[in-house]
């Protein structure tokens, strides 16, 4: 079966022409898909024969809301969506002064096994298709009755471990065939799959790359992020410099502060020396304590100390605003408790 929502309009056009249908029908089909219909039978301006052809050969992906949590503090909404095969992922919608932003998932689970991460702890099931990434956004927009202007690939999964589907999603979502969100409004977060950072850089897309660094030395990073054993910090930073040169875009480094693990002044000093002179920004995040990890967030004074040490050396850093703290907005935790029979 063909996943029709993962196709570009010219591909749908080719499919129809190859099967004896008129070229202009593709425009009608695409406009129905953009309206968010769930079935081909709703496409009431296309001929019966075409409907039958589509029903027999294609399917329309959907993301059904299984759970929805709304933060009483800031209105952040967290969804647990299920797909056609029953697999579930999480997405989070946040409201900022400039509009709505959605954090979507790219895989069901994740293979990367970072020790502080709820998604990493629950293992990996499968990649998401481009249409399943689009459906998370469409379902949230429909449910909330708003237009989402910013997309962050920072939910469950490692986007660069599902490279082809993610790139197709990025190209689709930024085209008129789909939601038409500009690349500059999209951020992709990676744990550091180095060869794919080079590939992405060579595509020259104007999206923001966010790199989950979380440690200044290989010793500390390899302990919490197994990917570091495959691609160490110096290889990762080299790839980041390449990305910056190719795209002229500033990279954000994510740094989750964990008490006694990566939050000493010495860590900040080493981090500053490695990032000095780079077109980058450091986002400090208090680590979310996830059941079973044993990690606790840093004492509050550590954040300011980090900011001071980094900024003295010319590296800008801010503490990321925590949204939805009452609903465990960081991804992986809702699905985990759902699967364990919780919420
Ligand atoms: N796999 C990608 C994107 C998804 S994870 C990546 O790792 O970048 C999204 C972000 O959440 C990453 O920066 C990740 O390091 C961070 N994260 C995971 N678990 C966390 C936790 N317990 N507390 C704070 N940040 C966490
Ligand atoms: Fe995967 Fe990212 Fe979690 Fe690491 S932090 S396990 S890469 S989702």
Could you describe the 3D structure shown?
It is a single chain. The chain folds into 2 domains: 2-59, Orthogonal Bundle (DNA polymerase, domain 1), CATH 1.10.150; 64-339, Alpha-Beta Barrel (TIM Barrel). A 10-stranded mixed sheet has the order 3-4-5-6-9-10-11-12-13-14. Strands 1-2 form a two-stranded parallel sheet. By secondary structure, the protein is of the alpha/beta class. Helix 5 crosses helix 6 (163-173). The protein has helices at 9-18, 25-35, 48-57, 118-121, 130-144, 163-173, 194-203, 218-224, 227-230, 233-247, 265-275, 300-312, 333-339; strands at 2-3, 58-59, 64-70, 77-82, 88-96, 99-103, 107-109, 124-127, 148-153, 186-190, 208-212, 251-257, 280-286, 317-319. It contains 13 helices and 14 strands. The protein is elongated. Iron/sulfur cluster is lined by residues 110, 112-114, 117, 119-120, 157-158, 191, 212.
Task: Give the names of the bound compounds.
Answer: S-adenosyl-L-homocysteine, iron/sulfur cluster
Calculate Rg over CA atoms: 21 Å
Task: List how many beta strands DSSP finds.
Answer: 14
Largest sheet strand order: 3-4-5-6-9-10-11-12-13-14
Mean pLDDT: 93
CATH architectural label of the largest domain: Alpha-Beta Barrel
The main sheet comes to:
10 strands, mixed
Number of helices: 13
Tally of domains = 2
CATH third-level topology of the largest domain: TIM Barrel
Overall geometric form: elongated
* CATH class descriptor of the largest domain: Alpha Beta
* Termini Cα gap: 34 Å
């Amino acid at each position: 079966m063909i996943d029709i929502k993962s196709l570009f309009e010219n591909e749908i056009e080719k499919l129809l022409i190859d099967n004896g249908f008129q070229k202009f029908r593709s425009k009608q089909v695409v406009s129905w898909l953009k309206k968010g219909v769930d079935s081909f039978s709703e496409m009431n301006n296309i001929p019966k024969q075409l409907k039958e052809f589509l029903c027999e050969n294609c399917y329309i992906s959907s993301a059904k809301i299984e759970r929805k949590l709304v933060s009483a503090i800031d209105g952040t909404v967290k969804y647990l969506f299920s797909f056609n095969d029953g697999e579930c992922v999480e997405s989070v919608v946040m409201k900022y002064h400039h509009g709505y932003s959605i954090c979507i998932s790219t895989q069901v689970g994740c293979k990367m096994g970072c020790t502080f991460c709820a998604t990493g702890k629950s293992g990996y099931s499968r990649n998401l298709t481009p249409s399943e990434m689009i459906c998370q956004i469409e379902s949230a927009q429909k449910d909330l009755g708003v237009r989402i202007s910013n997309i962050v690939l920072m939910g469950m999964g490692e986007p660069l471990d599902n490279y082809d589907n993610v790139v197709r999603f990025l190209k689709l979502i930024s085209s008129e065939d789909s939601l038409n969100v500009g690349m500059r409004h999209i951020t992709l977060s990676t744990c550091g799959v180095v060869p794919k950072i080079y590939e992405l850089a060579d595509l020259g897309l104007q999206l923001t790359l966010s790199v989950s660094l979380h440690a200044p030395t290989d010793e500390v990073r390899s302990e919490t992020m197994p990917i570091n054993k495959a691609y160490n910090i110096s290889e990762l930073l080299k790839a980041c410099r390449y990305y910056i040169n190719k795209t002229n875009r500033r990279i954000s480094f994510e740094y989750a502060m964990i008490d006694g693990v990566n939050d000493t002044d010495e860590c900040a000093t080493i981090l500053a020396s490695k990032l000095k002179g780079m077109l980058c920004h450091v986002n400090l995040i208090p680590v979310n304590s996830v059941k079973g990890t044993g990690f606790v967030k840093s004492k509050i004074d550590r954040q300011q100390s980090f900011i001071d040490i980094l900024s003295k050396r010319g590296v800008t850093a801010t503490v990321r605003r925590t949204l939805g703290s009452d609903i465990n907005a960081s991804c992986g935790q809702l699905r985990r408790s759902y699967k364990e029979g919780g919420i």
